[in-house]
């Protein structure tokens, strides 16, 4: 398939709460466009976008899925559209961020039955943070208890009066078969095949529709001086003229159209496609943004989407496929990408070759010879380019995509390999898993491998993918709390090593003063030796031995921190002393000091920030108090909600994200970051 003009390309991120009908709408759009012969259903597990086994089993989207379609507008304009279907579950918000990082528009799905829920707010905020124009579509209008007008009132109350309904349903629930077009003041009446024909508005809909038409028209013409002047003189702009002006407002974020449809029956689906294409900016009308330079900073650079520019490609998501290998979803920010191109990864430094370009339609690969600036596609086997990479034609320099919102992990499990073979393969599999999904984090806690994510479902799906895709089987257990110890008082000790077994022996004696440091100071080594009692070449070995002893654990079995070790004196032998002898002697001495002075158990304490509706602040504060939390601040967030900041022991946070969602019905936002260590209560256990 040849690349279409990027002037008519749209990448549409389908976002919204879980259960709002995003995947069903994607299925209906694909069918209406002729891309698929029949529609599947989420319940039957045969939709284009929910094609992974984990999604089919759970009947919900868990990852980012792309679906390409061709669309012809009412005026004959041919568009290419890439739908980016995203999960509504909060554990998988990383996929939403990835989709929005390349989207030309965010299509926010809101159920006519459920209205505005926590996931709606999250989707709205994510699109706003990404700077992407928004269109709201009220879905499931054919279901029992559907209430478009109630949903519209909620939307305007929650997000502002600049949300304008361009369509009104004529009939609701099972009677939903027609739509009143607010701009043209016509009724689109739908036939059984998803097509529509136009009729005059029925009398019962005229008054409401006309009132809405006047209100929307007055807002639109107020943004165009020529239209406003003509309107005030009694000249009514045509629907096409109103759409052109309204499109400028949408692109600038000054207006958000609200549409209505049913993905299940097909009513209104074609109008969703028409209006998304007509009212939103093309891929070539929005500059990309990258960060150029070394380190965590870098200077921001805008990239104009020119077909004749240098080739620059954003790999925004990778997925490991057990049959094809790694599939990299990408957007061409500049230039034209062709099969056979050789590019350099500006983020990792790896050299990559484009083996074969294609567009994705769920699991289907649709061959594409080229991709022009602004277009989205995919390629297989880019082994050195994880999610969040930039590929370009330059032979040097570093760059990366503009930063996405930080999503620090809030839930963790320890992984226990099922066999020796699994243990050996686990590190590589985890590296590939985290290359796909940067919101997964792997670290070590003592002898345990710990997998951290955004919730229990996030981690559970990752473990399932470890087995299915990478062939690595693990059991999970609660992540261990990373306790530490510190010395309870000061101790002066001798560390001595004296061994003779023929030939060179081992001899070293050190005199040490070991004492506590203030919390958070870590480790301090002081050399107070005079007169060469310990030769200079062995001083660094003494320090290493002290560090060895602290890292290997104190009397309670945990690494020791906040300790000062002072070397005051010692003895050496001209033949039998060595670096290893003094390192061992120092380790013996420090362990003796810890045993003599005793240690205090320390527990990790995290900084917890919860943003929640004001009426739920009290419940959050009560729950934090029950977790030994110390609230340091309560303040008003910029959106009118409350923000609570507290310090909470890590041992109390094992299931906090799950409990918080239960307490707040999913309306809270949570961040957890390690902060400091504090003395643990006597009841604490490792």
TrEMBL record:
The keyword GTP-binding applies. SMART domains: EFG_C, EFG_IV. The keyword Phosphoprotein does not apply. NCBIfam families: PRK12740.1-3, PRK12740.1-5, small_GTP. GO terms for molecular function: GTP binding; GTPase activity; translation elongation factor activity. Residues 7-284 form the Tr-type G domain. This is Elongation factor G. It comes from Agromyces kandeliae. GO terms for biological process: ribosome disassembly. Keywords: Elongation factor, GTP-binding, Nucleotide-binding, Protein biosynthesis.
């Amino acid at each position: 398939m040849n690349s279409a003009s990027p002037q008519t390309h749209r990448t549409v991120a389908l976002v919204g709460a879980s259960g709002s009908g995003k995947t069903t709408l994607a299925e209906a759009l694909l069918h209406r466009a002729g891309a698929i012969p029949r529609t599947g259903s989420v319940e039957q597990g045969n939709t284009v976008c929910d094609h992974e086994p984990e999604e089919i089993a759970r009947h919900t989207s868990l990852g980012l899925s792309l679906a390409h379609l061709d669309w012809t507008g009412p005026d004959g304009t041919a568009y290419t559209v890439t739908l980016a279907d995203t999960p509504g579950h909060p554990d998988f918000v990383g996929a939403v961020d990835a989709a929005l990082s390349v989207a030309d528009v965010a299509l926010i799905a809101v159920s006519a039955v459920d209205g505005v829920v926590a996931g709606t707010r999250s989707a709205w905020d994510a699109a706003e943070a990404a700077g992407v124009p928004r269109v709201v579509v009220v879905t499931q209008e054919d279901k029992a208890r559907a209430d478009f007008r109630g949903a519209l009132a909620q939307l305007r109350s929650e997000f502002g009066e600049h949300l304008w309904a361009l369509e009104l349903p004529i009939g609701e629930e099972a009677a939903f078969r027609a739509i009143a077009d607010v701009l043209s003041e016509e009724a689109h009446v739908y036939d059984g095949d998803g097509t529509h024909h136009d009729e005059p508005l029925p009398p019962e809909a005229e008054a409401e529709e006309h009132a809405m038409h006047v209100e929307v028209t007055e807002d639109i013409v107020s943004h165009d001086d020529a239209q406003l002047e003509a309107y005030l003189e009694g000249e009514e702009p045509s629907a096409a003229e109103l759409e052109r002006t309204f499109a400028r407002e949408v692109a600038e974020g000054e207006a958000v159209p609200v549409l209505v449809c049913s993905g299940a029956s097909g009513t209104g689906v074609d109008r969703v496609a028409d209006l998304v294409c007509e009212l939103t900016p093309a891929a070539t009308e929005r500059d990309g943004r990258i960060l150029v330079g070394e380190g965590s900073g870098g200077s921001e650079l805008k990239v104009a989407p020119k077909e004749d520019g240098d080739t620059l490609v954003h790999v925004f998501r990778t997925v490991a496929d057990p049959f094809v290998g790694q599939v990299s979803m990408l957007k061409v920010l500049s230039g034209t990408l062709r099969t056979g191109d050789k590019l350099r990864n500006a983020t990792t430094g790896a050299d990559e070759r484009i083996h074969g370009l294609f567009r994705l339609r769920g699991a289907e690969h649709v061959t594409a010879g080229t991709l022009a600036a602004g277009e989205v596609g995919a390629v297989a086997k880019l082994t050195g380019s994880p999610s969040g990479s930039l590929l370009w034609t330059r032979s040097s320099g570093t760059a990366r995509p503009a930063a996405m919102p930080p999503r620090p992990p809030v839930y963790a499990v320890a992984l226990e390999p099922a066999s020796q073979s699994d243990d050996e393969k686990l590190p590589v599999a985890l590296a590939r898993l985290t290359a796909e999904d940067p919101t997964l984090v792997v670290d070590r806690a003592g002898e345990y491998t710990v997998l951290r994510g955004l919730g229990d479902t996030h981690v559970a799906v990752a473990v399932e993918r470890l087995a299915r895709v990478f062939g690595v089987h693990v059991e999970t257990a609660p992540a261990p709390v990373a306790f530490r110890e510190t010395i309870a008082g000061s101790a002066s000790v001798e560390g001595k090593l004296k061994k003779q077994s023929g030939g060179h022996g081992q001899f070293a004696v050190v005199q040490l003063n070991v004492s506590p440091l203030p919390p958070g100071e870590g480790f301090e080594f002081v050399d107070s030796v005079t007169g060469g009692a310990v030769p200079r070449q062995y001083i660094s070995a003494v320090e290493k031995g002290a560090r060895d002893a602290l890292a290997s654990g104190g009397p309670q079995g945990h690494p020791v921190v906040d300790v000062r070790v002072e070397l005051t004196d010692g003895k050496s032998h001209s033949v039998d002393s060595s670096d290893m002898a003094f390192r061992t002697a120092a380790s013996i001495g420090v362990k003796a000091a810890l045993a003599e002075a005793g240690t205090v158990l320390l527990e990790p304490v995290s900084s917890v920030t919860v943003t929640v509706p004001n009426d739920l602040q009290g419940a959050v504060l009560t729950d934090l108090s029950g977790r030994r939390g110390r609230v340091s601040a309560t303040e008003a967030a910029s959106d009118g909600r409350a923000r609570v900041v507290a310090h909470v022991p890590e041992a109390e946070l094992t299931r906090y994200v799950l409990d918080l969602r239960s307490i707040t019905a999913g309306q809270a936002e949570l961040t957890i970051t390690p902060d400091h260590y504090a003395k643990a209560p006597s009841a604490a256990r490792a």
